[in-house]
Design goal:
The complex is a heterotrimer of chains A (491), B (98) and C (482). Chain A is of the alpha/beta class. Chain A is built from 16 helices and 13 strands. Chain A folds into 2 domains: 349 residues, Amidase signature (AS) enzymes (Alpha-Beta Complex); 80 residues, no CATH class. Chain A has an 11-stranded mixed sheet with strand order 1-3-2-6-8-7-12-13-11-9-10, sandwiched between helices. A two-stranded antiparallel sheet of chain A has the order 4-5. In chain A, helix 2 packs antiparallel against helix 3, helix 5 packs parallel to helix 6 and helix 10 packs across helix 12. The longest helix of chain A is centred in the last third of the chain and has 25 residues. Chain B is mainly α and 98 residues long. Chain B has a domain of 39 residues. Chain B is built from 3 helices and 2 strands, in the order H-H-H-E-E. Chain B is flat and about 55 Å long. Chain C is α+β, with helices and mostly antiparallel strands. Chain C folds into 3 domains: 289 residues, no CATH class; 112 residues, no CATH class; 61 residues, Arc Repressor Mutant, subunit A (Orthogonal Bundle). Chain C has 15 helices and 16 strands. Chain C has a 9-stranded mixed sheet with strand order 2-6-7-10-1-11-12-13-14. Chain C has a 3-stranded antiparallel sheet with strand order 5-4-15, with no helix packed on it. In chain C, strands 3-16 form a two-stranded antiparallel ribbon. In chain C, helix 7 crosses helix 8, helix 7 crosses helix 9 and helix 8 packs across helix 10. The chains are: A alpha/beta (491), B mainly alpha (98), C alpha+beta (482). At the A-B interface, helix 10, helix 11, helix 12 and helix 13 of A face helix 1, helix 2, helix 3 and strand 2 of B. Strand 2 of chain B pairs antiparallel with strand 9 of chain C.
Chain lengths: 491, 98, 482
């Protein structure tokens, strides 16, 4: 195995080597598979490794002339897919017992697009059950560990996707973000994660948690890699009604450094409160200073309804989830438990044994908030607060171009630390939920290390302005030029 | 205003959700739901009069399907992994009502 | 009975005539197909699949609401109706709730000589569920089977206000609703095949001011059973009230075989469907131009057509009514009329001979081998005296089985009218000799006797005589007898 493969290389590097024939594609894929095999037992980022098919795919790519290496933007690049995104023939368990044996008979739109771009699906990654959680501890198949400290969580719900990229098991991955499920694990694992504008990437084939909030997005080690994946997966889709009639993202739209220096960066006061751990706040402020030194203007702004977004989110998302998860009833697919003879007992035992505790808690909560007599009190109210949260952002983007905030108020916490008090777990998403409620694009990137643990900063932009976000992220990445501390794990 | 969700209500909700719980679990879930709901009280501080609800994030007219048939070739995969089939039918415990 | 006020409202579901399902591209022609063949990830509710609305389903739902004079709401919003049932693979049905396609409409029909107008409360669109199979096909004991072929077929639900006051009137209203959806081509409205389904709310009350207890009646599978079930239910309720007993708000199922309604017990509490806007389907804003374009497709509706047929062609109301009941029958009539402009005669032939032949073959007029042009030709031949009416009936029968032209059949069989006067004179002479009484009657001024004599000649010639010529010869002959 060529150890030098596993440093912070990018898609561009791998493509260069492949073109110069320093390594063959099967060798490259084999090397990644080897790496997964050697470290994943400790990390548990993967639920399924697509070994045989990945190698076959590599052979086809090499032999076939259907692909032009120069044209196919992700030619031969291995990618890990969160286990709530459907890949034909592979399991799609959503980290749940209820779908343990389910294999999707079709591809998600993003998978079709990745394949067309020449990417190789190398496996499915671990996640909180049905994406409900912030630590990947809610997976029915055991938690994913943080590559920087195996006693700590990788974040969640896309913990497997973030950890696999951070641990160099794979260069890029896809995650999904409902209230922060891409950005928080990206922050905890020191990688780049983008939640696109709601409707910019097709949700067809993404197993729904809360349909009006779910978005698929890329996770990568560099802003450039993140950009390359986003370019492939974005764009309208006739199979998703909620997908926007908007052209795909293009890297050509990314502003020049000169243009970036003219951006006005808003710092929402509500995101810099005492709730944020000191170490996190310090690193964020260093990045802000760096921007100022580069002549970017920063202004303090207000998002007055930030404080209410979390509650509204925990009304709206369980309501949608309670309905979205009704299809797991043991009738047509997935787990069926036949305890009694009758239909009712089949429903009850299949669902009760198929779902984990957090999922059941949210189903109960959502069913309650939609039930007769409580709709106006909770669901309707949640949707109205959502409107206020949206308006906050609309107003703020009249004053500034982008917002810069922490991703999470805390550093990666210890396994088991927050599982006792689920509301404490909910609170870890306070900075990622408001923009999700407003449907806005937001990115999480590493901005330094505190006690050898990565800290992420968040850039939030107006709808469909991912090019500004990615532009600023690239600008910062270049100037921060961080070298990740090398935990034992990496050697 | 403090709203307490009663055990009986949680039972009804569990039934609607097709979930079954032991008495202990019921008590726990009831406590959990009450604790979350108590946080929702905060929203009552806001004046929501005249605020329109956001049920969807929409950026334009959604696509519509043309009325032209497309056959899905993998339909038998579904039958192959269904929990119980008889011929091409999905089998479920007998439905008495209806 | 007469002391009670009956109130009935209808809830009618029609399958829309689209090629594909409401939210996916699977075909809708499920009748007779092997189970679970017309399915895809969307209509099976597989994890990750998403619905996309079929434009044609939207158009047909709007058209239905327009034809029923509804106010069309400016935004189309779909809600989820949440409940568990094995024929519902997502655990919810995509339907509409507080924002249906159309509201505040009305439907008019003629009943007992009056023009009735029943208000339409709402018209909304929703998806159909799958089908449960309870027996046969080697199903294991104690099990049911599920077939999802029907799942996701678009439906419109039409809900009337409780403006109907008798089972007869309810039936007439339902017939008109069926005719309207057929006229505008949104549904084939076939109750027996389930493409039109009807539930009803029935209540009786001793006073017109106060509504009685509402009982919902379901599972009526034909127009006849709707009528019978409502009749039964009204009688049942009156009987209970007469005995001083009280009624419960409940759902009852019609048992066709036993001719009774049965309480659908087993639901202690009312279902809580937890309706909320489907987050997978964005609301659609309806442009005026789009609505106008759809409305332009509304053809003449049955009631207007009936009036036109009565005025333009002087058809009696009854006949006109029968013709317009079936759009295709009325279309056939008007098509044939273009080539044979004697509406009364054509109408008589349509409603007697044509319908008789169709009934015998068990087909409807769209499947008929006889075209409107062919029928017109046959009638023209009668009119010109080339064949008699009696012969024509036989010819028509043969046209229905062979699809051949009347003229072809007539020449093949050597049937043609005997117009040869010499030949006919012989027969006339015989008839006159055999019927001296009739001749005497005629001569004493009884006109009717002439018809009898003509009839006798026709009989002798097996209907092949030209009745006009027979009449001429007879008159000449009788004049000479005087």
């Amino acid at each position: 195995m060529k150890v030098e493969l596993f440093k912070d290389f990018t898609i561009a590097d791998y493509h260069k080597w492949l073109r110069e024939e320093k390594i063959s594609l099967p060798e490259l894929i084999e090397a990644f598979l080897e790496r997964i095999k050697s470290i994943d037992p400790d990390l548990h980022a993967f639920l399924e490794i697509n070994q045989q098919a990945a190698l076959t795919e590599a052979d086809i790519l090499v032999k076939g002339d259907s692909f032009d290496k120069e044209l196919a933007p992700l030619w031969g690049i291995p990618i890990a897919i969160k286990d709530n995104i459907c890949v034909q023939g592979l399991p799609t368990t959503c980290g749940s017992r209820i779908l343990r044996n389910y294999r999707s008979p079709y591809n998600a739109t993003v998978i079709e697009r990745l394949k067309e771009a020449g990417a190789i699906i190398i496996g499915k990654t671990n996640m909180d059950e049905f994406a409900m959680g912030s630590s990947t501890e809610n997976s029915a198949f055991g938690p994913t560990r943080n590559p920087f400290d195996l006693e700590r969580v990788a974040g969640g719900s896309s913990g497997g996707s973030a950890a696999s990229v951070a641990a160099l098991e794979v260069p890029i991955s896809l995650g999904s973000d409902t209230g922060g499920s891409i950005r928080q694990p990206a922050s905890f694992c020191g990688v780049v994660g983008l939640r696109p504008t709601y409707g910019r990437v097709s949700r067809y084939g993404l197993v729904s948690f809360a349909s009006s909030l779910d978005q698929i997005g890329p996770i990568a080690r560099s802003v450039d890699d993140c950009t390359r994946v986003f370019e492939i997966i974005s764009g309208k889709d006739e199979q998703d009604s909620t997908c926007a009639p908007y052209p795909p993202f293009s890297r050509n739209d990314i502003p020049t450094e000169e243009e970036i220096r003219k951006l006005k960066i808003g710092l929402p006061r509500e995101y810099f409160s005492g709730e944020v751990e000191k170490g996190v706040l310090e690193l964020i402020e260093q990045s802000i200073d760096l921007l100022r030194k580069n002549n970017l203007e920063t202004i303090e702004v207000r998002l007055p309804h930030t404080d209410y977004a979390l509650e509204a989110y925990y009304i709206v998302s369980p309501c949608e989830a309670s309905s979205n998860l009704a299809r797991y009833d043991g009738v047509l697919y997935g787990f069926r438990e036949k305890e009694g003879e009758d239909l009712e007992s089949m429903y009850l035992s299949s669902r009760t044994r198929g779902f984990g505790e957090e999922v059941k808690r949210r189903i109960i909560l959502g069913t309650y908030c939609l039930s007769s007599g409580y709709y106006d009190e909770y669901y309707l109210k949640g949707m109205k607060v959502r409107t206020l949260v949206r308006h906050d952002f609309e107003q703020v983007f009249e004053e500034c171009d982008l917002l810069l905030t922490p991703v999470s108020p805390c550093l990666p916490f210890n396994l088991g630390e927050k599982t006792k008090d689920f509301y404490q777990m909910y609170l870890t998403d306070i900075f990622t939920i408001p923009s999700a409620m407003a449907g806005l694009p937001a990115l999480s990137m590493n901005c330094g290390y505190c006690d050898h643990l990565p800290v992420g900063l968040q850039i939030i932009g107006p709808p469909f302005r991912e090019e500004l976000i990615l532009g600023l992220a690239g600008f910062l990445e270049k100037r921060l030029s961080l070298t990740p501390p090398f935990p034992n794990f990496h050697q | 205003m403090e709203r307490k969700v009663s055990l009986a209500e949680i039972k009804t909700i569990a039934k609607l959700s097709k979930l079954s719980f032991s008495e202990q679990e019921l008590a726990n879930f009831s406590e959990d739901v009450n604790s979350v709901i108590s946080h929702f009280e905060k929203l009552n501080r806001l004046d929501l009069q005249g605020v329109s609800p956001t049920s969807h994030i929409s950026w334009g007219q959604p696509p519509l399907n043309p009325d032209e048939a497309v056959v899905w070739e993998n339909r038998d995969w579904v039958l192959e992994q269904a929990p119980e089939v008889c011929g091409r039918l999905i089998v479920v415990p007998k439905i008495v009502e209806k | 009975m007469d002391n009670y006020y009956v109130t009935i409202g209808l809830e009618v579901h029609c399958q829309l005539l689209t090629t594909t399902k409401m939210f996916c591209r699977c075909k809708t022609d499920y009748f007779g197909k092997a189970p679970n063949t017309l399915v895809c990830p969307v209509c099976l509710g597989l994890p990750g699949s998403l619905p996309v609305l079929n434009e044609q389903a939207l158009r047909l739902a709007i058209l239905t609401a327009q034809a029923l004079n509804c106010r069309i709401l400016p935004r189309v919003v779909f809600h989820r109706k949440n409940y568990f049932y094995p024929d519902l693979p997502k655990g919810y049905q995509i339907s509409q709730y507080d924002l249906p396609i159309g509201v505040e409409g009305k439907i008019e029909f003629d009943f007992k000589g009056n023009r009735e107008a029943v208000r339409i409360k709402r018209v909304h669109a929703e998806e159909d569920a799958g089908k449960l199979v309870h027996e046969g096909l080697n199903l294991p004991f104690g099990c049911s089977g599920v077939d999802f072929n029907r799942c996701g077929i678009p439906l419109v639900e039409i809900v009337t206000e409780p403006d109907l006051h008798s089972p007869e009137e309810a039936r007439e209203c339902l017939v008109m609703l069926r005719n309207v959806v057929r006229y505008i081509g949104v549904s084939d409205g076939n109750m027996e095949e389930g493409s039109l389904r009807c539930d009803a709310n029935v209540s009786v009350s001793p006073s017109p001011e106060k509504m009685g207890t509402k009982v919902e009646v379901k599972n009526m599978n034909s127009f006849r059973s709707v009528f019978r079930a409502l009749r039964y239910e009204v009688d049942r309720q009156v009987e209970l009230l007469e005995k001083g007993e009280s009624l419960y708000q409940e759902t009852r199922h019609w048992d066709e075989a036993r001719g009774i309604t049965l309480s659908a017990r087993g639901k202690e509490e009312a279902e809580d469907y937890r309706y909320f806007p489907d987050p997978d389907l964005l609301p659609i804003t309806l442009e005026d131009s789009f609505l106008k374009e759809i409305k332009a497709a509304i053809s003449e509706l049955p009631l207007t057509r009936k009036e036109r047929l009565m005025i333009e062609h002087e058809l009696p109301e009854n006949e006109a009514n029968i013709l317009v009941q079936d759009k295709t029958l009325a279309d056939f009539f008007e098509e044939a009329l273009k080539e044979f402009n004697q509406p009364r005669l054509l109408c008589n032939w349509m409603l007697t001979e044509v319908l008789k032949n169709l009934n015998e073959a068990g087909i409807d007029i769209t499947e008929s081998k006889v075209s409107p042009q062919q029928l017109a030709e046959l009638l023209r031949m009668i009119d010109k005296g080339e064949i008699s009416g009696t012969i024509a009936k036989g010819v028509l029968e043969e046209m229905f089985t062979t699809g051949l032209d009347a003229r072809e059949i007539v020449s093949k069989k050597g049937i043609s009218l005997i117009s040869n006067e010499k030949e006919l004179e012989k027969v006339v002479l015989e008839v006159v000799e055999k019927n001296p009484q009739s001749v005497a009657d005629y001569l004493s001024g009884k006109e009717k006797a002439l018809h009898f004599l003509i009839g006798q000649v026709m009989k002798e010639t097996k209907g092949q005589a030209n009745p006009e010529i027979v009449k001429d010869i007879l008159l000449k002959k009788l004049a000479s007898e005087e």
